[in-house]
Amino acid sequence: MNPLIVLAIGIALAGLVAYVAHLVGNARRMKGSPLLRSIPEGIERARRGRRRILVAWVAPGDKDSDRLLEALTGELERELRVGFELVRIDAPDGDREVIQVLATKYGLEKLAVPSLLALDIAGKKIGALQGKDAFGDGAGSVGESVRRFAEQARI
Fold this sequence. Notes:
four-stranded mixed β-sheet, single chain, about 160 residues, elongated
């Protein structure tokens, strides 16, 4: 067999192995990563990775907010991290006026907690799920609501 063909096949296989190792390593690095705490940081990372941003507005200790966070960091995390940077914004009752200013900057006129906001890489609003009624009852329905919303936000 021609040595140049053998060399080309060897280089192609080495490239394929390196690519698969990158994908596997990246999936392991991203699994269980904490949610970002800054929207500008999420936008910057999304720009570099050509992804979008999902911002979860939650109230610490609120059961509906906890269900949303469980969906984002549990069953759906791996699926969501493929196309999105995930950001968590805590919105405790005492800070709602300040948090409302931030929410308005990114397109939420009236913040209802919990909320999920999708942004493009320019920080423009794509869509939002707002308030506990938007997520349904029970953990399974929260996950399904988030999954459907993420699919729409990817388009």
